[in-house]
Amino acid sequence: ETIPVRAVLQVAHGMKDYFDNYGDLARYLLPQGIVVCGADHAGHGNSVGEAGLGYFADKHGDSVLVEDVHGLMQIMRTQYPEAPYFLLGHSMGSFVACEAAARYSRSLSGLLLSGTGWKVPALPFGLVLCNLICLFRGKNYRSKLIEDLSFAGYNSRYEDDFGGFAWLSREKSAADSFIADPKRMFVMTAGAYRDMMR
Length: 198
Description:
There is one protein chain. By secondary structure, the protein is an alpha/beta fold. The chain has 7 helices and 4 strands. A 4-stranded parallel sheet has the order 2-1-3-4, sandwiched between helices. Helix 2 (61-79) packs across helix 3 and helix 4 packs antiparallel against helix 7.
């Protein structure tokens, strides 16, 4: 029996994640007539070029992420032109999704955000730090300082920090899975952090 397509949901995943990890979501929604699609962001999952995990692009990596989301949107829109189209952005992907929605709102029926943020007081400082590190060490440099500053406070409220990843989930198995996955355990480049902050 063919299930009629009620909607399309495109996923923009978070930092150090990739689309294959949304299989449970897709398996849950597909029987309800919701097609789930997504692609690995540049420098993530199976999209990795020779620069490796955690590197977006030589120039304008922030726009590269947004335009990749839009490119998949266009492909899926041709396959399901009548279906309502939703964009789900998680964590880093929520910022990418917001920018994609701002640029291409006519293509969307709705925008869903999870694990997002609003005002980040330290953002100007972070951008200056990333620019300095890119200037003196290069955009491919993987700075433990930037990484630590980006994630430092996340586990502070948890008694057991699950190896530094309690903030990801209440389930220790989720943290263990994250830690065991080489496609997730990497340090982003200074250039990618700069692009993300932009």
